[in-house]
Design brief:
Layout lengths: L10 E6 L11 H9 L4 E7 L5 H13 L4 E6 L2 H14 L7 E5 L1 H5 L6 H20 L7 E4 L3 E5 L3 H12 L3 E6 L13 E2 L4 E2 H14 L3 E5 L1 E9 L2 E8 L14 H5 L3 E3 L8 E3 L1 E2 L11 E2 L5 H5 L4 H5 L12 E7 L1 E4 L4 E2 L16 E3 H8 L20 E8 L14 H15 L4 E6 L9 H10 L3 E4 L4 E4 L6 E7 L4 E7 L1 E6 L1 E2 L2 H10 L26 E3 L9 H19 L3 E4 L4 E3 L9 H5 L5 E3 L5 E3 L9 H5 L5 E3 L4 H12 L2
Parallel strand pairs: 1-2, 1-3, 3-4, 6-7, 6-18, 7-10, 18-29, 20-27, 21-22, 21-27, 22-23
Antiparallel strand pairs: 5-30, 8-9, 11-12, 12-17, 13-14, 15-16, 19-28, 24-25, 25-26, 31-34, 32-33
Helix pairs in contact: 1-5, 2-3, 5-18, 6-7, 6-15, 11-12, 12-13
């Protein structure tokens, strides 16, 4: 009986013009003709836009009409459209992993625009390699798991609040974890919002109350996420609830405890410009509106004495014996809305923040302008309480700076414009200067807002001061800068300076990224799956981002993205079951030596050593990164859809003429 000869698969190749992104450099027709000559290729086509409805439809028709068994698309980055093309195969009855995509845009036309002939030859080489690899592709079956119908939102600022409300109103159980004692985030510290100059808390506070009343939301304030395990549809988050030493259910917020507390400490909410008691409420509109005890400064915890607050509380709400609690929460999806921290202006030493009492940050100035702030909304100098006759705002402190953060924080220009207009409205006689490299006003009504500032008499100086000095006799601040528009050096004396400090990712973002194995952008923020098409997704399925956890943005953009993240989460948790990562690693157990190298290199903790002395791969936790396969000295670990035989075929095709 003779051997049965294996039939070679029927391959279809589609070469994309990508408008003119590819065809202006690569001779697409020549590449298409070359593809027709390759082994196993039964047809090759070229399209103006292969990703369009027309292009995708042509692939679907060819799969059925020509009985295609493999599809190769030569176009742009797989990161952009690979999922869409796989869906075409899936809907046409072909396994989606019998698809190969080759990048002849970013890796060919865009980098070889000066030599069209060689770019075309390279495109041919890439297509030849893709066809060779596609010949050895094998179907990959999807793994499906049940879904936990709940969502965890990490962060209780405007982004987290918005996401939680969207989810809860859709009937989804939602857990919101906020590390501070109250939700609200930085927005709660603001006086007004640009460009409408409406009260920040007038917008925020009703949403905070709505969240408290929403039955589908479980609020875990003064808490933090200490660990996360699992995968899309089935995450388990361990949350630590820190003790408030006040029973929030019994506390009625009367304030008697705070009145009798003998300890005064610096109030962080008011940027250190006011004092609070050891037992306090974060701010009047706090949710939950319950007091808590600052253990570090409380006399009872320091000396074992005092307890005046407990003696005066008629509701017996004070509980010095409270301990931290740990909760294990099971959810199907997560939204990261951890917000931002302000750039520490003390790092910009030449501007004297922390040395000169009348040099403030933009957030300091917000609290001065606020009616419940340290000056009751009156603009006063910190040094002597005098109303300043002149104020200078300096832009890009910690942003667009090669020594600190090279990115633009996007909101600082508008914040300074808002402050300048507020100063002119409160004190029309005060001279106001804004020093900048340029003013950025991208957003609805923001250019008009900039014009309003000019009409109100704000002076704009194009050039940043090199340093700030203080006149010891008058307390005036001396600014020397270049005026690029006038082409001269300026020296200006003002009575107050406000630094437009930029926005940075908070330390909590780094901890969460490590726990969830999220990708990080070079700027330190969480990286989105795709900057245009998947701006709320991350590299981990079922984990989404909203607000400044991704990058600095204003309130409208934050709210919009929070809604998008909620919608994306809803798509996960409303399903009964969900497919998870298919291109996982697998091991030949008989050949495994148990060296454990793969255990150490796996970034997702998906591999462990068993009692038998061999490794075991959890296909649920595996994300198909390939680190283990590369590190294995015995080559006994392979990755589905990226087998050694497939990669070698691709390499050999590249090296052949």
């Amino acid at each position: 009986m003779g051997l049965v000869k294996k039939r070679h698969p029927r391959i279809g190749v589609y070469v994309c013009h990508c408008g003119q992104n590819i065809s202006s450099v690569v001779n697409v027709s020549e590449v298409r003709k070359y593809a027709e000559s390759l082994p196993n290729v039964v047809l090759a086509r070229e399209n103006r836009y292969t990703c369009s409805d027309l292009g995708q439809s042509s692939i679907a028709k060819d799969i059925k009409k020509h009985e295609l068994e493999r599809v190769v698309v030569a176009s742009c980055s797989p990161r952009l459209h690979e999922i869409a093309f796989r869906e075409v195969l899936d809907s046409s009855g072909l396994n989606p992993y019998l698809f190969e995509m080759v990048n002849i845009r970013e890796q060919c036309s865009w980098v070889h625009s000066k030599d069209k002939e060689k770019a075309t030859e390279k495109a041919k080489d890439l297509v030849r390699a893709a066809v060779a690899r596609s010949t050895l592709l094998e179907p990959v079956e999807k793994i499906k798991k049940d879904v936990t119908k709940a969502v965890l939102v990490i962060g209780g600022g405007i982004a987290g609040i918005t996401s939680a409300l969207h989810l809860a109103r859709a009937g989804i159980k939602t857990y919101l974890v906020e590390k501070e004692a109250s939700i609200g985030g930085h927005m709660a510290q603001l006086d007004k919002t640009y460009p409408t100059l409406d009260c920040s808390l007038c917008i925020l506070s009703p949403r905070m109350v709505d969240m408290k009343k929403e039955p589908n939301i479980e609020l875990l304030s003064y808490s933090d996420v200490v660990n996360v395990e699992g995968y899309v549809g089935n995450f388990t988050a361990r949350v630590r609830k820190n003790p408030r030493y006040v029973d929030a259910e019994k506390c009625i917020g009367c304030g008697i405890c705070s009145d009798v507390c003998p300890v005064n400490v610096v109030d962080g909410f008011n940027q250190g410009m006011m004092h609070r008691k050891a037992i306090h409420i974060p701010f009047p509109q706090a949710v939950p509106n319950a007091y808590l005890i600052d253990k570090v400064n409380c006399l009872h915890f320091q000396t074992g004495a005092c307890q005046l607050c407990a003696k005066k509380c008629d509701n017996n709400a004070i509980d010095f014996n409270q301990k931290e609690e740990f909760l294990d929460i099971e959810v199907g999806a997560m939204i990261i809305a951890t917000g931002f921290q302000l750039f520490d202006a003390k790092r910009k030493k030449e501007y004297g923040y922390g040395r000169f009492s009348n040099v403030l940050t933009n957030l300091d100035f917000e609290r001065i302008l606020s009616a419940d702030g340290p000056t009751g909304g009156k603009i006063k100098r910190q040094g002597d309480g005098k109303k300043p006759d002149s104020i200078a705002f300096i832009q890009c402190v910690g942003s667009r700076d090669e020594n600190f953060n090279t990115y633009c924080s996007t909101i600082c220009c508008m914040i300074s414009l808002k402050h300048a207009i507020q100063v002119r409205e409160k004190n029309p006689e005060t001279e106001v200067y804004i020093y900048s490299n340029d003013i950025r006003t991208s957003g609805k009504d923001l250019e008009e807002f900039y014009k309003r500032g000019r009409e109100r008499g704000v002076y704009f100086i194009r050039g940043l001061p090199s340093e700030i000095q203080e006149d010891p006799e008058t307390g005036e601040l001396i600014l020397r800068s270049e005026d690029l528009n006038m082409g001269r050096i300026l020296e200006n004396r003002v009575e107050m300076v406000v630094l437009a400090a930029g926005v940075e990712p908070p330390p909590s973002v780094g901890r969460i990224m490590r726990k969830l194995h999220l990708n990080q952008s070079p700027d330190g923020f969480i990286m989105e799956a795709h900057p245009k098409l998947r701006p709320v997704d991350t590299n981990i399925a079922g984990v989404y981002i909203a607000g400044c956890a991704q990058f600095p943005k204003g309130i409208p953009e934050t709210v919009a993205q929070a809604g998008g993240a909620a919608m994306a989460s809803t798509e996960v948790v409303l399903k009964d079951e969900i497919p998870i990562e298919e291109t996982t690693a697998f091991i030949d157990e008989e050949k495994c030596s148990g060296c454990g190298i793969c255990v150490n290199v796996c970034p997702y903790e998906a591999i462990k050593l068993t009692d038998k002395g061999i490794v075991e791969i959890n296909e649920i936790l595996c994300k198909g990164c390939g680190s283990c396969a590369v590190a294995c000295p015995s080559s006994v670990i392979q990755q589905t859809h990226f087998l050694d035989s497939q990669i070698k075929a691709q390499i050999n095709a590249i090296l052949s003429d």
